[in-house]
């Protein structure tokens, strides 16, 4: 099935005004749902191809400073800007000595970070124009080629590694921490200590590239610019230093003149209308008041609402009968990228430092157990003696989403990360043995040393080659595409956003080429 360029360009060029005045009846040639990595690639490439495109994003556009002069709040003083409509923050690290120091009551608001809670698994996601790029750690890793090929056997790896990974890396402005800065900075003492502990156990470490500017960070340390990574900012947003999608892909997309972004617009339902699609869209204020319910139609629909958002929209459409021919494989192949968090205690004579950069730059590698364990900061502003790690483990543990008609939501069935914990404990038992150290049980909720009940890397639900064809075209429906982390089959072995971006670039290149 081929899309003609004419069909993609469409006949109308209606501007979309996100206001009461434009409550319904808008038709656009292309709609992109969400504004994370996959969505941003789609928006830019459609805009460059001359296609009038509307981006519908449920979160805010984060460009207006609050009364404190800052757009985002910090991790140590979270307020209503921190989390998506919660009464209390739900930070991944609860505190120290079982005290819930990190969390506090907040006013319900369209904050930047959401934690979507399912039985046994809380999934962290970004909300706002830029999706996960607003809140993530910026670690920008190209996956190991063999493992990528195992996960995507039908994708041309040579094309990915020669063309699309370098393109994604360039577009996202990935940079590397200078060795001399890492060795000298007070703010990376915690990472150097973990490197020493790993070396005592015979493990190597690797530097992890990032989209946070290390030039900016060095200037922060010299006191020349406002502090962000060195001022305990990350999961609720960075006010400076990080190159997020709203500054990159999305800004470029808007500059084409063909792309309009509508923040605080949540797509709730997808139906067929004519040869295209109709969307039910709810516009809200930042405090959650519903401003309008809109009806938007389009010829082509690109779903970039993330693994959770895209999977839920499609499952709801299939199981309520709106799009009954959607494939049986929807909801399958979901995984947390093998995420397991671990905390160790250090000796009194080996402090981690009270100053810690919020941006991780080092990982411990354990190839025999297929563990890639990033050394995460604990930027508490005091000495905690805690070494914290995000272990990315490679295994076949998968969950599955189903649609629950009673709540009208997608529900995750997740059986826990036994294989992930086995692998991570193999690595960290050895590090503890070699250093005479122990695990910390006071850092995560539930008194666990290994936290497998939350993740940062939701992947899958509409997997490439199963729920879609080999380029993200949804089976059974012409003009309907998945362009985000829902395409990735649950595990990548490294942090996912470079892969999500590169895969979206690849898919869009083919979809637009075939449309010509
Ligand atoms: P994503 O970026 O999640 O964007 C989806 C967007 O769609 C969001 O803006 C949603 O608000 C929006 N949306 C959802 N439903 C709807 C709807 N119905 N209507 C309208 N809009 C909707 O999707 N990855 C790395 O590679 N390196 C890291 O260092 C890293 N650190 C992380 C740290 C944290 C705290 C978190 C939460 C994630 C981290 N990740 C990291 C994961 C990474 O951000 C994630 O894989 C990508 O953002 C996923 O990209 P997608 O395009 O799939």
From TrEMBL:
<dbReference type="GO" id="GO:0016995">
    <property type="term" value="F:cholesterol oxidase activity"/>
</dbReference>
<keyword id="KW-0153">Cholesterol metabolism</keyword>
<keyword id="KW-0732">Signal</keyword>
<keyword id="KW-0443">Lipid metabolism</keyword>
<feature type="domain" description="Glucose-methanol-choline oxidoreductase C-terminal">
    <location>
        <begin position="455"/>
        <end position="504"/>
    </location>
</feature>
<keyword id="KW-0753">Steroid metabolism</keyword>
<comment type="similarity">
    <text>Belongs to the GMC oxidoreductase family.</text>
</comment>
<keyword id="KW-0285">Flavoprotein</keyword>
<dbReference type="InterPro" id="IPR007867">
    <property type="entry name" value="GMC_OxRtase_C"/>
</dbReference>
<keyword id="KW-0413">Isomerase</keyword>
<dbReference type="InterPro" id="IPR000172">
    <property type="entry name" value="GMC_OxRdtase_N"/>
</dbReference>
<dbReference type="GO" id="GO:0050660">
    <property type="term" value="F:flavin adenine dinucleotide binding"/>
</dbReference>
<dbReference type="Pfam" id="PF05199">
    <property type="entry name" value="GMC_oxred_C"/>
</dbReference>
<keyword id="KW-0274">FAD</keyword>
<dbReference type="Pfam" id="PF00732">
    <property type="entry name" value="GMC_oxred_N"/>
</dbReference>
<dbReference type="InterPro" id="IPR036188">
    <property type="entry name" value="FAD/NAD-bd_sf"/>
</dbReference>
<keyword id="KW-1207">Sterol metabolism</keyword>
<protein>
    <recommendedName>
        <fullName>Cholesterol oxidase</fullName>
        <ecNumber>1.1.3.6</ecNumber>
        <ecNumber>5.3.3.1</ecNumber>
    </recommendedName>
</protein>
<dbReference type="GO" id="GO:0004769">
    <property type="term" value="F:steroid Delta-isomerase activity"/>
</dbReference>
<comment type="pathway">
    <text>Steroid metabolism; cholesterol degradation.</text>
</comment>
<dbReference type="GO" id="GO:0008203">
    <property type="term" value="P:cholesterol metabolic process"/>
</dbReference>
<dbReference type="InterPro" id="IPR052542">
    <property type="entry name" value="Cholesterol_Oxidase"/>
</dbReference>
<dbReference type="Pfam" id="PF22500">
    <property type="entry name" value="GMC_oxred_C_1st"/>
</dbReference>
<keyword id="KW-0560">Oxidoreductase</keyword>
<feature type="signal peptide">
    <location>
        <begin position="1"/>
        <end position="23"/>
    </location>
</feature>
<feature type="domain" description="Glucose-methanol-choline oxidoreductase N-terminal">
    <location>
        <begin position="109"/>
        <end position="316"/>
    </location>
</feature>
